[in-house]
Structures are given as structure tokens and as C-alpha cells.
Amino acid sequence: MRLKKKLLGIILSLVLVLGLMPGMSLTAKADATLSNLWIGESGEITSEGVVNGTGGTGTASVAVDGNDIVITLTDFVYSGAGNSRDNFLSGITYTGNYNLRVKLVGNNTITQTGNNGGNCAGFYSWKSASSVSFCGSGSLIVSAGNAKFNSFGISVAGPLSIEECTINATSGNATDYASTGIRAGGDINVFNADVTASCGTTSGKSYCNGIGAGSHNLVIMSGNVKATGTSSALYYGDDSYRTQMILSDGHGRVLSLQAGENEAGATDVTVENVANQKYVSIKTEKILHTHNFTYSAKGATITATCTDDCDIADGLTLTISAPTELTYDGRAKAASLSTGYNTTAFPDEYTIKYYQGASEVEAANVKAAGDYTAKVTVGDATASVDFTITSGGTSSGSSDNTNTTTDTSATVPYDDVAISTGSVNDITGTAAATAESNPFGTKIENNDNLTTLLALTPEEVEQGVNVWLDIQDMSATVPQADKDLVQNASTNLTVGMYLDINLFKKVGGNTATKITETNGTVKASILIPESLWKAGRTFEIIRVHDGVATAIEGTYDENTHVFTFETDKFSTYALAYKDLVSSNDSNTTSNSSSSNSSNSTQSTTPKTGDPNDNRVWYLLLLASLGGLGFLGLSKKKKVND
Description:
Blueprint: H1 2-20, E1 37-39, E2 49-50, E3 57-65, E4 68-80, E5 83-85, E6 88-94, E7 99-105, E8 107-112, E9 119-125, E10 132-136, E11 139-143, E12 150-156, E13 160-163, E14 166-170, E15 178-184, E16 188-198, E17 207-212, E18 217-228, E19 232-234, E20 244-247, E21 252-260, E22 267-268, E23 279-286, E24 294-298, E25 301-305, E26 317-321, E27 336-337, E28 353-356, E29 359-361, E30 370-378, E31 381-389, E32 424-426, E33 443-444, H2 450-453, H3 458-463, E34 465-473, H4 480-489, E35 494-507, E36 513-515, E37 517-527, E38 538-545, E39 548-557, E40 562-569, E41 572-578, H5 590-603, H6 614-640
Parallel strand pairs: 4-7, 4-8, 6-9, 7-10, 8-11, 9-12, 10-13, 11-14, 12-15, 13-16, 14-16, 15-17, 16-18, 17-19, 18-20, 32-34
Antiparallel strand pairs: 1-6, 2-3, 3-4, 5-6, 18-23, 21-22, 21-23, 24-25, 25-26, 26-27, 28-29, 28-30, 30-31, 33-37, 34-35, 35-36, 35-41, 37-40, 38-39, 38-41, 39-40
Helix pairs in contact: 1-6
Region (Disordered): 390-409, 586-610
Keywords: Membrane, Transmembrane, Transmembrane helix
Protein name: LPXTG-motif cell wall anchor domain-containing protein
């Protein structure tokens, strides 16, 4: 029993060490997978982008958006048998489990030419776990040919929504079962769209409907719907299994509702009298909502509230955040407002005002150490955030920018800061990047010329570009080869610390990339750590790039401790300094010069940064394995004795 307890303890220790080792964290994987999709005569589509081999004209492209698969049809025209799945020949086929969105741009036509031996559809998606929506500003004419069993213009297994577009769906003749213009296994919702559905002819036991949703509903929020069927316009079985039409007067105003044997003989009817009619037409207009916002404030957030039936659900809050850099450096500190708010709910340009106690302070004067309050007002609501500017001074060179009143529940790294299309923005040290540290108060001083400096193309600017300069202390990890190059280039300087300086750009939704060289010099400024402050001291930057060390002069403001320099290459840098030589120092001996040289060499490897070494974890792992081996040998020896 004692041995079992020891063995269990060592195993648990081993698991703990493995869990703490670097690189042992797990990363969640995205759920969406692009597969089980065919357009026209293409093979199975498994990657995003324009679909090739469809056999049609125009453009069909595919993308993954979260758990949705998005098909965009742009003036796409296809005519043919299509692909065969589940004994269905169809122009577009999807048999996966994710929701499907079809965006229509321009005029699109899909003509499926039939299947005399089985079933056919113009558009076919038959997995009950997924929903299908048609949307966009364009139109789609979709039809299926004649079939032995079933012919459907559009056939989906789950709910179907048609929004802001025009759909005309027609099925062909069906010999043995059903012909339906639009068929769904869930509710069909129409919102501000024009929908026409009709079927072919049938024979034998077959039935023909314009629209069929089984025992579900055709819900017309707004828009125009016209259905024609030789059996009935809307599928109608018995009382427990039929498609009913529901009108939502909250969103659409009914202009007319007519039904009859055909369009020519249609008369005005009520919803209750639609059943078994072979022709049904409903015309509605969208009721435009009049926004009437009121505003309330809680802490740092203002919330906009509209009247009932408002179609705006997102972007209804505006939050004020304290400055991210709260250590005195001689520069004004600016609070910021959240981005992404709805401009209908918050239509104006809002000004942040600053106060010390009851006295208002000009924004340009929010720089001295002390307590401040930043406020923003919308309507009758005022949100505020308190913050304190400290006098600064940390021995490691990392400013303590903690602000206990700032909401940090949603941290945002540089890579996730929202990008504004058509503009180039410097987001270095901005409040939007709440997850990033900026220990040296880094700024790009000439950020008004980034398009030229980065040689950005008009296409990149159109997508929107975020740019940031990241400077971190790398004294503990700098390669020895870089140290040697710096030492050779700084014989009369003392190295205070090594810096890893990287310039990044992110274009649209693409991955952020490092920029190693620029088209001109970038003017950057940093706050010198207090541990390196000394009266009369001057600073230089030594750059190591492609195996070459280059000394770069700059300007140092001894009052604000801000060092400004220019560079066009980005890699390893050394922050070096030189002190004024006093009259007593001018008579030093060669021995003391040698001693100073020795001290200078030692100062090039300061104990800054993260001192942890991954090798420690591997030693602990080996120790645990050794313990297991020792127990095994001890047990064997006892048995032999």
C-alpha cells in the first residue's frame, strides 16, 4: 500500500510538471469545415475562394464565416444536369451540417435540366441540422427539369429565409411523386423580398405545389410572394400536416391578399381562405421604423435604448476608457472612446472632457502627475472614468500602467484591433489594443506618412491597414553574436539594454506581417527607463541588421527623458549611453581605462527580462522519470531478497 501511494504521488507530480512545461497548452479549433458542397459541375469544394470548373459563366465563390458557409453568386449562369448526391441531380448541392448563406449579386440563373431516372432540383440542401438563407441585392431564377420521382426548384431540409432579394423558383414535371417550386423542412421566412414559386405538371399519385413547408409555416414579414400550383399554391394535407401562411403586421403592411384558381380569377381573401387555392398572391410594404433613442449611463458606459421593434441590435453602447500610458513622460494623456458603436444610435462626434476635482482641464494639459476624471456626454447621460498619472520610475524599465478603474475584461491584442477600410492607422500604444504592453511609451512620430513609408498599394489602402511599432526588452535573450557586433561598434559607449524593435502591418483580414525595411526613415520615440537616467548622459541606438552593426544618433530630452531616433530597418537594437567626462576623470591612468572597459563589457548583459530557462522544466521531467526508475529497482531488489 505504501509503495502504491508513493507511485501515485510521483505520477501526479509528473503530470503537474508536464502541464506546466512551455508549449503544453491546448488551442481550440474552429468548428466550421468546408466540404460536401458542389456548384454546377465542379468537384467537391473544400477550400475558400472562386470556384473553378462549374461549367457556368459569371462568378461563384465560397467562404467560411464562423459556423456558416457563404456562397456568393455574381451574375452566375449555369445550365446542366449538375452533380448527383442522395439520388438527386441538382445545380447547387450541399449535404453538410453547417448553416448555408447564399449572397446574390447581380442577375443569376441556375437551370437544372432534369433526371428521368430519379430526382432533381435547381438548389438542393438536405441536412435537417442546417438552415439556408438567400440574401443580397441581386436576383436568382432557379429551375429544375422533369424527373421520375421528385422535381424541386429549391429544396432544403431545415428552415429557409429569403431576405432583401428576388427569387423565382420553378420545378419541372414529376411522374411518380411531387413537384414543388420551393420546398422546406422548416419555416419559410420572407423579409422585404420578392418571391415567385411555381411547379410543373404531375401525373398519377403525384402532387404539385408552389410552396411547401410540410407542417411548418410560410411567414411573410414583409415583401411580395406569389405561388402557383396545380394541386394547391401552398402545400395542404390534413389539418395536422399543412403549410400555413402567417402575416406579421409588425414589420409589413398588407396591401393586398388574393387567391383563386389562377391569377386571372383571383379575388381578395383572408388568410383563413388561402388553403387549397391554386394561386395565391400577397403584396406588402415594409413598415419603416422611426428611431427614438434615449440614453442612460452606468460607470464608464452609455447605453442607447430605442422603442420596440427597432431593427438595431448591436453597437448600442459607448464606453470611455482611461489612457493606457499613465506614467509621466511630459506628453498629454488621452482617454479614448470604444469603436464599433452604431452610428445611428450614436450619430454625433463626441468630445471627451477632463477634470481635476471640480475644475475642467484642457486636454493638452493632462500630463502632470495627479488624479483625473475623463467624461463623455450623450444626450442627458454622462459616462466617466477616473485615472491617475504617476511620476513614474521602475528599475526594470517597464512602466506600471495599471488602472483599477478600466474594464479589462475584454483584452484586445494589436492583431485583433478593428481595421477601418480605406484608411491607414497607427495603433501603437492605443487604447484599442488593451492586451498589449508598451513599456517604453513607444510612438511613431511621423505616422502621417505611413502610406509612403511602407510603400502601400492602393489595393492595400482600400482594404484598410493597421500599423504598429513594438519595442520590448530582450537583454536576457539577445544572441551572443549580436552582442559581439554591438561591442565592436560601441567602444566608447556603455550598453544599457538590448531592444527587440519590430514594425508590423496588417492589411484587411490578412495575417499581420513584419516589415524589415521601409521606404524612408521611421521617426520613433521611446521613454528611457529611470534606471538609466543621469545628468549629462547622452544616448545612442546601435542597430544590428543582416550581420552589420550601425550606430544611430538621436535626440534626448533630459526633462522628459524621451529619446527620438530615425531608422529604416528593424531587428535587434542596443540602447547605449555615454556620460560627461569631468576634469578629475581626464587624468585617469591606463589601468583605470582598462577597468572602465571591463565594466562596460559587463554592463552589456544586464539581468533584465524573463530569467526562466526552459531547461529547468526538462530537468524536473528527468528527475521525475528517475524517481519512477528508482522505485522499480528498489521493489525488484526487495523481491529478490
